Structure formats: C-alpha cells, structure tokens
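Troubleshooting entry. Yesterday's outputs looked truncated, so today I'm pasting the complete records for two proteins to confirm everything comes through intact. If either block looks cut off, that's the bug. Protein one:
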Amino acid sequence: MLATPNLDDPNQISFCIPFAPDNEEEIPFSPHVHQKHDIPEGEKLRIEAYTTAWRKCLDRIKIAASTDAFDLDDANETSATALTSHLYLNDCISLASAMKNLIAGFVDRPHILEKVRGRSAVSLVSYDMDMLLVWYTAIRDAYAREHQPKLVIILHDFEQLDPLIVQDIFTISSLYIPRLPLVFILSLSSPAYLSFLHSTYPKATLALLRLSTYAVPSGEKVLEKVLLGTFFDIEFEPDLIIGPSVLIYLTDYYNRHNLSLDAALSILHLAHMKHFSGEPLTLLVRSTPASDILAQQSSFSFVEKLTALLQSSQLLPTASNLESSKQSMSSLISAIDDARTAVYSRARRLRVGFGIAKLVHDFMIGQGYKGLGWGDLNIDVMILALQGGLGPDIKYLGVMVKKLRATQLAALFSEMHSYFSSLPWDGRSGEEEARTNLVMNINALPPQQTEDNDVTGAISQIAAKFGDWLVNYLKRLINPSLRATIIAGLLQPHDFADTRHRRDDDQAELSLWELPDASILFHRYLNSGKMLNLYDWFLSFQLELETQRKNLKERAAVKARSLPSSPRKRGEKDKAKARAREEHEKEEVIEKWHMELQARFMQAMQDLDYLGFIKHTGQIVLHQPTGLLYLACSTHSSRTAWTPAADLFDSEHASFDDYVATYDPSSGRVTRLKFVHFESERGFSAHGMDVVQSSSNSEELFVYLINHRAPLNQSAHEVGADTSVEVFKTVVGSDTLTYIRTFEDPQVIICPNDVIGYPDGQSFYFTNDHSIRVGLFRALELFRSVSSVGYCNAQTGCKPAITKMQSTNGIARAENDTIYVTSLSGSISFLERQSDNTLVVTDTVSTDRVLDNVSIDLEGALWVAGFPNVFAWLKHFSNPTTLAASSGLRISINTGESSFYGEKHKVDKVTTPGLAYICLGGFVVAFSMFSLLVKEKFYINEVVLGTAFGILMGPHVADIFDPRSWGPDSTFITREVTRIVLATGLFAIGVELPKSYMAKHAKSLLVMVVPTMAIGWVIVAGDHL
C-alpha cells in the first residue's frame, strides 16, 4: 500500500499520485491519430531524428550567438568545465527546500551515483552540504582530473527571491570554501551596476562574495544574429527548416514578453518537438528506413501514404504490388531521397538568394543610397523572404543597380564574386550559371574605370543588363513563381489528385463536366477570352453542371440495374401513387437544385477570386451616346491591400497592372483596353476615372485616370501614395488607350479620389479626400473641413480650386458647368466655376448616409451611391467577406408643393422592400380604421380585402411591386410568408375565444376539424394524389 502524499510539505516539489481504478480491468490508451500510418519503432526513429536535428541546431546557435556557455544538457561530467544546478523561484519557498534543490541538481546523476554508492554521504539528509562535499570528492577521486570542474549555481529571477533565504544560502556555502569551488550566477534583469545588491543585502553578506558583472547578450539584435547564423546562413544546413509562422511567433513573443536568448531557444526547441511529435513521415528528415523495414506488413499503410504523396507530385511513377516488389521498393526509396535532396536544395537556394539581396542592399547603403527601409534589423525581411514577399524589394534593387557608375559596378561585382567563392561546395555547384554571368560582366567592364569614361554608354548598358538579370535571378531564388502550377492544377486537376484507385479506362482525357467546379469555371473563363460578364459566366457554368447532373444520374441508373433485385409486382394504384410522389417531389428537387447551382457558382468564383484570377471594378463611367460602360478594374487582393483612400498602404501586395475595360450591355461583351505608349516602370493602380467626348472629334474620347503609384525609395506606410492623373485618348469601339500625358504635383494632387475631365483633353477637376497622405491626424479629418477640390491644366499647372471642404469623395459635371461633389459626411455640394477656374459653393443637400460616387442622367438628375452603415462600410475594406449595405439616391429639382416652403431638391430613396412595407403597413392601418364597418355591414372579412389589395398593388394592375422579382425562390418565400400569416391569424383567433369555448362547442369543432378539414385537404391536394 502506498502512503498518502503530504500535499502540505513545502520541501516537496512534485508528487506521484498513482491511478487506482475502481475495477481491475485494464483501460487501454487511445491510439494516436497517425498511429495507423506508422512503421514499426517509428516513434523511436522520430525521437532519434528529433534529437539529432535539435542537437545540430543548438550547437549552431551557440556558435552564432558567440557565447562561451557550457552545455547544460551534457551528462558527461568528465569533459565538462563546469557542473550546474538551477534554482528557480518555486524552489526557494524555504531554506530547506532551496538547499535540497541546490544539492539535488548536482548529485542526482545516475552514473555519478554509481561512483558514490557505499560512501558515508548516503546516510546524510538531502539538504546537508556535506552530501554535496562527499559527492564532489567522489567525482574528483573517480576521474582524477587535473582541472577540477566548478560547481555553478544559477539563481534565476534573482530579484524575486526572498533575500533572507538567499543570505542563508550564501552564508552556508561560504563555510565550504575552498573545499567546494562554488560559483553563483545571479540572473538580474536590472542594469549591469550593482545597485540592487547593495540596496537589498547587508554588508555582512556582500563581504562573503567576490562580485563581477557580465552582460548577457539580449535584445532583437541577438535574435537576428542567431537567425542569420543558423537558418539563413549558407554554410549551415539545418535538418528542420522553419517557416514564416514560427518566425513570426518567435519574434512577437521575443519582443513582447522575454528579450532573452533562453526564450528564443525554448520556442525553437518546441518547434522541433512539435514537428516530430505526430506525423510519421517526419522520420524521413535525414534518412530513409531500410527496405526490409518498409517491406513489413505493418509498414504497408505508411508506404501506401508515402507512395500516394510521391505519385501525386510526379516524383514516383505508378506501380502495382509495391509491398512485394523489390524493384518498386528501390524506386520508392530513390524517390524519397530525390525529394529530400530537392527540398534541401530549394532551402539552400533561398539562403543564397537572401544573402545576395542583403549584400546588394548593404552595398547600396554604403554607396549613399537610401535603400529599402530595412533598417538595422533584418527579421522582417527574413519573414518576407520565407513568405515569398520580397518581389517589390528585389525589383527596386535592380532599379538601383542600373544607376551605378563604373567604379561602383566594379566594387559590387567584386563583392558578389567573393560571396560566390565563399559558398560551400554544394551551394556553389548549383550557382555555376550565375557565377559565369558575373565573371562575364566583370570582363566586360573597361580596364580603366573612371567616373567620366562612359562616353559611349557602355557602362550604362552593362548596368541595365546586369540589373535586369539580378532581378530575375533573385526572383527565381527567393520568389519562385507559383502561378504556372496553379493554372496547371486548374486546367488538369486529375494530374495532381490521388491516382491510386483510378481504373485504366479513367486514364483518358476527362470531360469538362468531370472536373471540379473551380476548374469548370476557369475553363469557361479562358474560353471567353478572359473577359465576360457575370450572368453569361453563370449560364455557361450552369450548362456544364446540368450535363454533369445528367451523366451522374445515368451512371447511377446503370449501376442500379446491374445490381440483383427480386421482382415485385406493382398494381395500378401503386404506380399512380409513385407517379404522384415523383411529381410532388419534382418541384422541391428543382428548387433545391437551383439553390445548389448558385451556391456552387459562388463558391467556385470565390476560389478563383482568392487565387487572383478575378478583376474587380473600381469605378464605372457610362458613355451615354453609345451606351458603353467604361470600367476601371483591379484585383480583389489589391483592393484590400492598397487603397490609399481607406488607409490601406501595403504596396508590396498591390496590383500595379490594373486596366480599363468596356462593357456593352446590349451584347454582354466585355473588352479589355490595351495601353499604348504607356511605359511607366511604376505601373498603374486604378481608382477614379472619367470619359469625355472630344470637342474637336466626336469619335474621339479622352479618358482621365487616377493612378495610385507606390512611392520611390520610401515606404508607403510612412509617406503614403505618390498619386498621379494619367490622360489617354481612344476611339469609340477601339480596344486601345493611347497615352497622352501625366499630371503630378505632390502639393496639390494629395489624395485624389475622383476626377472629371474636359473635352479639350488638357484640364480636369479632382477631389482630395484627405489633406495629408498619412499620419495620426488623417483619421480625424472625417470630422474636419480640411479636404479640397483641385484643378489642373496642361499649360498652367495644378492649383486648389476650393478648400476647407469635408471629406470630398465623388465628383460630376453638368452641361451648364455646375459641379457636384459628394462627401463622406452625407452632403452634396453644388459648385459654380469662376473665371479663374476656382469654385464657389452655391447650394448643399444633406442626406442621412455616407455618399460615394455621383453621376448625372440625361434629365439632369443626380444618382448617388450611398452606405447607410458607415461602420460596416469601413469594416468591409479590411475584410471583404463582411457585408455592407448599399443604396442608391436620386436627387432632382423639387417641383412639388414642398418647393414653396424652400425645399429646392428632392431626395428619393426608393427600394422594392420599402414599397412592400409601405403597402402592407398602409393596408393594416386602413383596415383597422374601417374593419367594423366592413365586417358588420358588408360581411367581408380581411382575407378577401387583402387579396383584392394585393391584386391592385401587384404587377397585373398598378405594378408597384412584384414578388416574383425578389429572386429565384419567390415561390418558396411567398409560401413561407403565407404560412406565418396564417399561423399568426389562427393564434389571434385562439386568444380571443372565451375560456370555456372548447368544452361548449366540442361536437361542432370535432365535425369541423376531422371530416371537414380532411375533405378540404383531399380537394386541395388532389392534384398530387
């Protein structure tokens, strides 16, 4: 019988509470989720792989950190220069507990206890220093070392320890000097000077100590040094390659909670443990199990899973009877080795690319260039490199290299040549082509390099050529293109699927309907010329899914006929019931199928949107003479990353290849317009747009576009966007936009949102939604009148047309040259143009919602887009999955009676649900006023009146609203609403009944409920019987 543990004993730091079940039946442990895919002794092999990987990483970290720390996990005391014992805050709750843990940290070592066993020390109590003295004497005698190891006691969190207990520890330990070579390391978070010790401990205690200070490396620079010396060092190849998520968590925890190397080591240690803890395939990190182990029957599941992965990656050809074929097993092992080599080669090339990018960047900084804003720390750059997000930085490095002079190029070539030469053999052998190209560029430089010898332009050509090569080379190393793989996966998804269970007749080319939904939608996208409207896209998708449904039904029917079944004779009555049941279910099946079609289309379109294949329209401009819609298009991901108007300044994930397209509503054709002679290196990021007919040629159109360019040599988060206005011209029906000019003025064109152009192609007005590009005060401008409207002319330049406006947004121009400007505050300003092109406010119309773009119809009415919920609208920018309600407003001249009282303009907010609510509420109010008269005098109930009112308001008479326009499920909606109304009416009748009504009228109710309702049900449902 085990003794009951004393949980109140302060000297005990842990307790063993054995499990004692009520019955003696053995309770099995639940198997691991991956256990069925493991091999014999797989857990042992993974532990060995983990130990090797972590030991290798830890040894490299010690070298990278340049510390002289001894190995705390080394159990071989014969080679240790110091033996250690750790004391933590929980170990020092009392003097006895502290001394016991101090001594146990040294003496509880199994192979040393073999030397000590039988000595007198074993009879001593565990907290007696004589126990430590005898143990240390045994070590000294047993190993007879010339230089005896020190006994180091590390006091963690020293400021939090009880000073009285620490004083006693120092006093007791001093009595055993010099017989015990004790060294205390005090872990202090305070500065290096000894103010804490002098203010906390008396002079008598300090007199026992010989103090010296040592600054332990800490801070983010230490973490960067460790990472650069391990996972980003070309001379070191770790067994485990960390990903960006581990590095992000490591950096966040290190900066927020614990700026010590121990914390970083703990997180990296946990990352290694987690990697090897579950997945059986992790034992393949450095070696492959022998073929006899893989050939065992218990390894079949492991081999099957591994084979499927390799075959899906095209690394292993399809083979049968893998478990019994020595040739197939040899191919499998060879494929595993090839895959492992490819992974480590890819990681090695990433480290080479990162090293070259860092070398070029540091060189440019040394030459006086501003650089990429990486700063002194490179951890964020490491994360971007692992995420594949260094594309813009690499491109800018190439631009900077093109500006170098002859002597600078020679110096850069020399440093890069030295870097390539210093690579280890495995890294250098894979970069022979790059080294050859570098040597050719070195030889191409003239022998006498001066600052002014580039008369022929040869140096500029070398720099430009080398800059382009450097960009492409680094992108191949750091940012491998995944787009080709994604497209291949969409076009031929069966090549990436598990092919183990496919029959021989399935190896032929699959039909389009046999592909996944996203692949079907993508095929239709390509067949349409990559531009199509949403409705036609849905119809083409629906056609393929109808084919898919038909073929799957035929397959199921053939399979069902092939199955044996007992004959059954069915009568005419049974057949009639079966037909009725089928007809009854047919309507519901068709309704569910239509809902499934829409859901699958939305899901497939969302998948393609996530992959970046769908362009989103930023603004639409109607060319009224032709009816063509001009669309400014961008990507979904770019809008959520790069929208300066919404304070989104992630230029690294922005799309600078936006475009303009036209949409013909009559034919449904969408045409992408190509830029001609527009060769800006900074690309095009669309926002506002205007299309104006030329005053000199009715067939010619001028297109004014706002281009949110990324800033040069600066971070967009610090300076904002460097926006310009681009002017193009086109011809009606053309598929090209010819570049004319660029307007840029940082003092006036600050944060443009929308633009209106003039027919001369040389002047325009635009709105600045903010007065500053970035900063704290920018967020407060929504409540201040600091925005403006600007004016630009090709001859006179740009200037503010009107200032001190509040959050200007959309802008439009009428034929009489009146300009209308909307505001996020919900107002519309009417502006009059002056002779000097400035603007004056003549009128203002206020609304109850945030206003966006504005357009003018042929009757002169304004059509404005609005957002009733401003918070949902703002949240939609950062998370597009969050829905934000929108609405349309029509503002026109008020010709009604209210105009007599000064209401100049009429604001209409007409919606179909609003009309339905008005009609329903009006009927209820009217009927409640005359219900007594109608019921008592005319004997007409509310059902008849409601039906008549619905007919009058419906599409056949007044056509005020049409329930069939509420969507494809209008029948279902109407039926459910009718059920709710009927249930509510019955409940109201039940509430009005007297208390004893049921008992008094039991017979009549029974007659009405049972036979009468049954007959009515038969009559109504007769068509379905």
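Protein two, checking that the full record survives here as well:
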Amino acid sequence: MCVEEIAVASMGGITCISHDGVSGNIFAVGNTNGLVRVMDRRMDARTGTVANWREHTPSKICNVFIRPGQAEVVSASENGDVKYWDLRHRESVFTLADTHPDHTLQYMVAHESAPVVMTASDATVKFWNQRGSSIGAVPANRSGASGAASYMKTLAGYGASRTQMVRVSAAALHGYLPVAVMVSDDGRVSCIQPVKASMRPPPTLANLSIGGSGSDSDDGEESSVGAKHVDLSVGGSGGNGDDGEQKSGLLHPSNSSDTDLSDDSMDGKTDSVLITPVKSSKVKPEDTVPEMGDLSISDNINTSTPSKPSYGHPRSLSAAPKFSLSGSQQTDGYAEARSQVNYYLKDNIDGVQAIAKHSDQTTQQFVIKQAESIAEFIDELVQCVKPGLGKVELENELKATIAAQLKRRSPAGRYSEKTEAEMFNSAVRFLKWLCPGSDSTFSKTNEKHIYPCFVELINFVTELVVRPLLDQQPTSSDQKPKRLVRSYRKTDVKPDNAEGRRRIDMALKCDALHYNNSSSDDDEYDDNSIQFSEERLKAKDGRNDERPNYSRIFAVVEVKPDTSAANIEKGLAQLVEYSKGVYWNQHNRRFIWGLVSGGSNVKACILGPNFLLASQFMDVTTAAGRLELIGFLVNWSFCELPKLGYDPTIRFNRVHKCFTVDMADSNESKLTQTTYYLRKIVVFAERVFGRHTRCFVVGEKPPSLDEDSDNSGDILIKDAWPEVSGSAEDDMRDESKLLERVSNGLAGRSEFNGMYSKFLGGGRMQIQNARGESVDDTTRTILGETVWAQLGDLPLRAHMRIAMSGVGEPLKTIQSIPELIVVIYDVMRCHMGILKHCQILHRDISEANILVRRDNAGVHGMLIDFDHAISITDDGYAKHAERTGTVPFMSVSNLENLQPKRTALDDWESIIYILCWLGTFGWNSDTRPSGSVADLNIASWDGNNVMKIANSKRDHMHSSDNFTGITKGFNPKIAGIRRLANVVEGLRAVLIDNHSHPDLRGAMIIPDSFPEENDSDEEADQYEFKMRPDPFVERAAHWESISERLLAKLETYADKARARM
C-alpha cells in the first residue's frame, strides 16, 4: 500500500535512491542525466528540495548514499567519479576521480558507519578511503582457468564458477567484517573479501566506535558472532580515548571530566573506526600503604553514597566504589580497549625499561651488578638442561648448581635446605619456559602452561634480590631494595574485589620493606610495610598473597601463545581494560606498569594519561633477553616511589588512621606542602586514559582531633592530569589560574556567594629529580627525555591539584521540580556573572558539574569544574573553539565544531538539553522511569557519532512542534513534570524562535528561495537553490542580548518555583 507520493521534478529518469536512516525524512535521488537531488519529505514538493548537484553531468548516476544521521552524501557516476557532498555546501567537498580507468563503473556502495566505499566495474572490485587511496582490490581473472574465473575472492555463495564478466546489479558491505556481498545480473550471489587483509579508513567524524559486544574473553566465552573484531584503522593510529576515552552508550554518556572531547583528543581519536557486532546498547609512601596499592576503599575512608550506574543517566564520576566489568560492559569494554590501543600505542620504544631506573648513578651501577649476578645464576641453570639428560641426572645437576650459587652468595650459610628446595621447585617450573623442548608436556603456545613459569621466574628473581641482606648490609641506603615485587600465585583468576567474569592472567604486587635497624624520621607514616626477617617474607597483616586484589595490584601481566599481531593487540587491550580496576581502586596511581608476553617474548609496557608505550621484545630463551627482563624487575625493587607510578604526596597516617593529601604551594619554587586529611572520596578515576580526575573531601584537622561532630570536611581537592601548554607560568588555560580569577573577580559580590567554589591554592604538582630539585610532575618528567624524544608531538599533560572551599551535594539530592528549577537558575546566574566580571566561559555545563547546597535560606545551586573553561575575547567569543563537554549536553555548534568560536549561547543550549535529560530519565532512583526508554526521541542525543547527534538536535530544536517530541517523553512519574516541560519549551523559544530576523530563527539550514509556480519541470530541475545561513552561527553574534533574555526568562520560572517550595 502506498502511503505517500513525492514528486522530485526531474526530467531524467531516477536511477537510485537513499534516505538518511534516522528520521527517514531526508532522501536523495540520482538521475540518468547526472543530477543528484536531496529532498526533505516534511516540506511540500516545490519547497522540499534541499540540494541540487550537477557535477556528474552528463554521466549517469550509478548510486547515491546518505550516511545515517549526517550531512554527508556519497554519489557515483558511470564515468568512474565518486563524489562526497556536504548538505551545507553547493559544491562537492572531495572527488575520487576515474576510479576504474577504461571501464564503466557499474555500482558503488558506501559503508553506513565507516568511511569506506566499494566500487565495481566489469573488471575490478575496489575498496577506497576518503583520501582517495585504494585500500583493497579484487582483480579480474578472465582466463577461466580451473573453472574459477571469478573477479572476486569468493568466500561463500554461488559465483565461484563464473567464466565471464556480468554486470553488478547490487552490493552491500558487511557491518563489521571487511566483506562485501555482490549480486550480478545473472542472478549469482558472491561474498567477497578484498585482497588486503584490512580496510584502513581515513580520519572522519563518522563513528568513534560502533557497538561492540563480540570480543574474545579470557574465560573462554566465544564471540557473539563467532568471529574476531575487524579493526578498520588508518595506519594503526586511530582509536578512542580521553578523555577520549569515550565510553558512552545509547543512554549512558561519558562524564566530561574524563571525556576529553577537545581537539587534542577527539580529532585524533576519530582516525579509526572500530566496527564490531552490536549486541545491545550500553546502558551504561615508599614506607607507606600507598606503595602497596592499598589506597582504596577501606574502614579508614568514607566513600560517597553508592550510586550504581544505570540506564537513563550519564555516567557519574561518583559512581559505586567498586570496580565492575559485567555483562555487556565486559564485551563493550574490550572493544573500547582495542580502539584505545590503536590510538595510544607507541610500540617498540627504546628505553621503556629505563624509566624504572633509580635516579642516582651509583645506585644504578649497583642494580646493574645485582641484575647481572641473578642473570648469571639463571644462565647456569639453563645450561644444566642438556639434550639426552635423564630426569634424575637433571635434578641432581640443578640442585648442585643452586647449592653452589647459594654458597657463593651466602658464605655464612644462612640459606636453609628448605630454601634450596623452594628455589629448586621454582627453577624446575620456569626452565620449561626458558628452555623450549626440555619438557614434552610443556607447550609454549599454550598460555596456561606459561602462567606458572612466569610466576616462578619473577618470584625467583625477587628472592635473590632480598636474600643478600641476611648476610650483609649495603653501605648506602639507596643500595637496599625498597620493596618486594612479587607475583600473586593465583593465575587466570578474577580479582577479589571485581564483579563480572573477567579473569586476568597474572598480577604483580608491591610490598614495601621495613628494616629492623632503621629509624625513620617519619615513623608517623610507618604502616603495613613488611617486617624484614630471616623467615620467609610475609605481610604483617596476614593478607592473602595468593589471589590478586585490585586495591593491591601493582602491575597486570597478560600472556599470549605467540607474537602474532592479533595476539599482542589482544594482550595490550586486556592490559588496558584491567588497568581500569587499578585506577578505580588506587587513588594514588599516576601511571601503571604492565607486561605482555607472546610465547617466550615479553614486552614492558607503561600506561599513562595519554600514552601506552611498549618496549621491544625481550626473548627469555636468550641470555640477552633474560638479562634485560631481570634488570627491569630488579629496578622495580630499587627505584624511587614515583618511578613505580605511585604518588608520594598521598599517604596513610597510622596515628590518626586516615590518609593525607599534600598540596603544593604554587607560589613557591620548591616543593612545599600543606597537608589535608582525607574524609571522603567523591570522584574516582574510572578510565586508563584521560584526565584521571579524582576529587577528595578533606579537612584541615585529622578526624580524630576535629571538633566537628560529623567530620564531614569543608574543603574539596581536585586532582587531575589535563593537557597543558609550556610552563606553569605561561599556561593561561591552567584551571587553578582560572579559579583564582573567578574568586578575585566575584570577591565582594555577595549575590554570588555559595554559587561557586572559592580557590584556596594549588596548581601543578612537583616531584624531586635526581639532583633533589623540584620539577613539575608531567608526562615528560615521567618518561624522561630519551623516551619523550621518540613520541613526536604527544601533548604534554601535567599533574594538577587544586583546593577549593565550598562543598555541595550531587544533583541527585534534588527533592522536587521547583528545587531543580531554582538550582539551575542559580547556576546560570553564576555562569553569566563569571562571564561578565571575570571574562571566563565555562564551556562544560553538565549534570556532573552542577551541585546542590542547602542552608537556612533554602536550596541553592553551585557551578563547579572549570577544566574546560577559557577566557573570552572583548566581543564575547571563546579564544579557542575545540570540541569539549559531555555528549548529550553539547550544543550543536560544539558537536559540529562550527565557527565562529563558542559563546554563552552554547552553554544555554546545554542547560536545555540537561533539563530535557533529567525530565526524561530523572536524577535519582525515585525519579527514574520504570519502562523502556530506548525508543524515545531523546535517545538519539547520545552515542559515538557526534554528527548524527548534532543532526538529531537540529531536527528537534528547529520548531516547537518538533521539540514536543522530546517533552512528550518526559517521565509522568515525576510530580510537577509539566512545569519542567514549560520551562524547557520557554527557554527553547527564546533561544530559537523569538527573533525578528529570519536568519536567527530555527535550527535547520533550509533553502532561501524556491522555483516559481509557473516554472516548467525542466526549469525547476535546473534551479539553483540558495541556502539560508546557519542560524546557530548567526545567533552567536547576538549572544549577549539573547543571553540576557534567557536569564530573565529563567528568573521568572525560578520565582514561581520558590513560591511553590
């Protein structure tokens, strides 16, 4: 049954058609005369043409394709030209010219998500990226030899025995595999694969990642489709990260603090598209405890009230204080991790292991001698393994070698027979790995066989590091090992404090050593370190040394059967995924170490805020490879605490039984500190890459001495790793400087009291270098100059810590719609006050950056988090226009990265989106919807495809009728929800509709003129449509007057809300 007819006013016959795949309102047609026409079915036939393009004329259009949810059209003509169009431009933005020389192009198909195009002629099938580079081809074979003259590599189907060329009549690209299906005029169907193994698309704003639930899992679960993920990346450089690390699902966007969508992150991250099967939508001190990985949730720390992430809410950084990878998060998390590996990995870097070297040259030489001595011991054991040697003879030779080595190392004979037996048992295990073929039952291609070998090798090395201390003390304190780095005995195991099914292969722990004859000047901070004695070393607190726990894991080890690219990539992705649990539980981690083994080859890895570095392989079957790995392990036992990735300024105070956080004084040139006492952790670092934002509520007095009965603390400390430019003095985007400007600019203005956090101090954190000098704690400082020089233009990140007064409650504590309206009004009043008096634009209005404060006068709103804030010019524009924020709340201009630069209107637009989000999904368990929300219109505001999201927002914001589709989805369960709908509808009208000039109205880019009624079809076909200017761009020039009207409108709503409270 035909439900609608649309006249396209074309003299030529229509050869192809495509629609946008989202709303179904936009469609494109191609004609025999080379015309490509785009129509909007919501408009009448004479005014519904959006674009007419004639660059293909007179060649016939073979196919046309609209990328779903984007302003991008791809068309192809028989002369071999493939053109890319932007609906906002009258000319093509790029052309693939003459794709099939001397042949007629028969068919073109574009991938709906990845920037990949396939073209077919009677001679060749080719795959292209948008740079115009061929990324795969299937050559023709007309010979008919062996009856397989197919012009395609046939994987399945009915086209394998074709002996002559026929015309391609239809084709389609697989959603996540580099496979295409083609149909020919003779009725044959073939499934083909390009000659090249993978398609590598160029940078695009298509999808950062698409779905992802079919990963290989450690627990033996098969992929949901029984196939590996196919990584469509550009030169292996693409991926999804930091901030970008973007892990937002359909109704579960990333929080802005760690979702860095600025140019420095988003633009790089879109270099790759990871296409995976979509199963379901993502709902989304040296002498102290911290070195032992114990700065976690414990009896000594109060945590924020658990609020487990659930559908309908953007992920809050104050989520439940337990790391979880369960359900679809496990598979989606793995897909995300693979994408991050593609983007962040710098492989085969020289000097990665040297990052862990002690800064003192004398100590370095001592450590080298220790490593060489241990390697010599193990080499002697390896030499004992000889072909044809019987089991008894081998055991006797190994025992004799161990006894001789121990005697040389301990003339006093302090080693017992028990020790010899333990070392013998360890050697028997790891020699299977080091000496391939020595044991017929051992397979180096079976990773489970490698686990116990690797464990025993690491623990064997650690035993030899500390045992000499039983007989003789080194002359220098730097020549004593500071810690034991050992492997947990349990392998292929789920950590104790993790949910879900994910099992890590191996994990290492770090235990600080405490010497009997040492007297520390800092005994106040002596805690659960290990008491060094002649007995086998055990933790004083009797913790389980067998099973790993995320709160104590120092490094993750992933083992794979070989060094194939696929296995190493998988190992690195799992290393990334499991390191999340370390960051979540250990709030003093600056970076994380890891190891990835492919058979007998091991890579040292280091994961930081914006880097994943891997060393070259260390082959443990060779003496040189063993020495390199052993030297690396020994360095971990001797180096300074910061070189392990821990933060020495967050420590446990055993007297007051609480953690302390040191604040650097930004006005001093050396490392000075003010110590605060930790009361509560309200924001956790939940990603491996990004800003690693953490927030602590602290007090100036220890809880045991504070007279405040609730010990709640009144100071907030924010700890993060943002990108910086140059020195601290020259970095004008330093959040501490911006907060100081806000505090100074609003000082004495009582109308803003309590609406913002007042700056107390802070800035870049510092650490001491080898010469005892205080230097900025940056990624460059961590990696050292040798490694840094190999990383090209890697952006610099710095460790920032800021103390602020004024602590509010999260938005989930709102008790009614009137309270919500009052809080939002206070926030935007403060926002405009900061803009006016401090010349700072916030640029990241989101649910997480709005707090609630209560006093005797009632409820108030607070605006926090100036991570993305920026100074404005005299005309009110932000000085930089990079994309940043929380995806569902980002403005259209922000999503599309439009010019001119951002203004206050972008933040006002964000407020409208936030209120719509809260009205639909609520703000706590009492206001969340009970039914399904996946089909609501607002669901299109979230995801990974920013251009698709922007297009959806344009559609919804364009008119009051369209916007009703959003407000109708508000949750009727919330009392007074209609009042909230009135607020957002009123604000939208002020922003979008209520303007005298037509160029300022609306949200869509529409034609400015149309053909005359008496024009013939041919004249209408030739009509050149002029498009109106983008209303979002036009309104930016009037930001000040529109903002004033918006604030006045919101004030009216707030006054009425107060009257109802």
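Both blocks look complete. Sanity check on protein two: The longest helix spans residues 361-384.
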